[in-house]
Amino acid sequence: MPINIQNGLPAKTILENEKIFAIEDDSARKQRVRPIQMVILNLMPKKIETETQILRLISKSPLQVSIDLMKIDSHKSKNTSEEHLVKFYKDYHTFLNNYYDCMIVTGAPVEHLEFEEVDYWKELCEIMEWSKTHVYSVMHICWGAQAGLYYHYGIKKQMLSEKMFGIFTHHLEDEYDFLTNGFDEYHFTPHSRHTKIDEEALLKDKRLVVLSKGEKTGSNIIVTKDYRQIFVTGHFEYGVETLSQEYFRDLNEGKPIHIPENYFLNDDPEQKPILKWRSHANLLYRNWLNYVYQLTPYVIENIQNVDPIGTSKKDEHGYSKAFIK
């Protein structure tokens, strides 16, 4: 949540330079409050597990968040019961006239395919295009990040010689960015993927900013300068047992798999995994929700009128929910 300070307090400029939200009394009195509206496009096979992991992180914010769950219409899930899908999920086309403060696009186990070969690629492109005018900020995760970078910016993915699998160290590129504010200089993120993004193409695109990267993993958190698009190549949302379950599953199925790096105590699969990323995962999602909360208009349909820097046009009462002028 932002801090409410006296009008004209000199600290406001310093705090804003450190990307900390500070609202002067006059602006605070004009603010109206409503729940954040979020939609989650869940592309993962085990939807209940993924939705639980994401909702766990969202719940750490003091803000009220209203959640809708979206599924792809052109693909039938094999690992989640039809009863669960019918009860809790809706097809994309039912959301066409909805507006959201934020959206999450999850990963998907389709890395071995070219994007255009994925059976729901056309529908996913329609959803990503829809989100540009109906969602203020979209967070893409793992394959979802690769798909988003490819669709929006033409940045391709590349196959790895072996699976990027384990808990990896990343360092901040900007200590005072909105999304990573409060992060330690070095932080951990789980990765589980067979592909990587084209780092050279990423660095050439001046519309994108790398906030966090690792020596082995490459860019980890990537954003547009207005934070309308966020791309996370790892899995901050993973639970402590997720990589363990993937490891033993692949091992039992005879697939080529190595022990996840920097994960089990003493790299011994018989030992408990070590949870190293929870605090930074909570921070990332709290910072994102706080940012979205401050900058989206109270009348949610006015998202389509929000300027690139995050300020919105005045609503019918003559003011915006955003505090940045």
Spell out the key features of this protein:
325 residues, alpha/beta, 9 helices, 2 domains, disordered C terminus, Rossmann fold
Question: What would you say this structure looks like, in words?
Answer:
With 325 residues, the chain is of the alpha/beta class. It folds into two domains: 31-239 and 277-305, Class I glutamine amidotransferase (GATase) domain (Rossmann fold, 3-Layer(aba) Sandwich); 241-274, no CATH class. It has nine helices and twelve strands. The protein has helices at 11-17, 25-30, 47-58, 82-88, 121-134, 143-153, 199-204, 242-252, 278-295; strands at residues 3-5, 22-24, 36-41, 65-71, 89-91, 100-105, 135-141, 157-172, 186-197, 208-214, 218-224, 229-232. The strands form two sheets. The protein has a ten-stranded mixed β-sheet, sandwiched between helices. A two-stranded parallel ribbon has the order 1-2. Strand 10 (208-214) and strand 11 form a beta hairpin. The longest helix is centred in the last third of the chain and has 18 residues, at 278-295. The radius of gyration is 20 Å and the shape is globular. Keywords: Acyltransferase, Amino-acid biosynthesis, Cytoplasm, Methionine biosynthesis, Transferase. Pfam families: HTS. One of its GO terms (molecular function) is homoserine O-succinyltransferase activity.
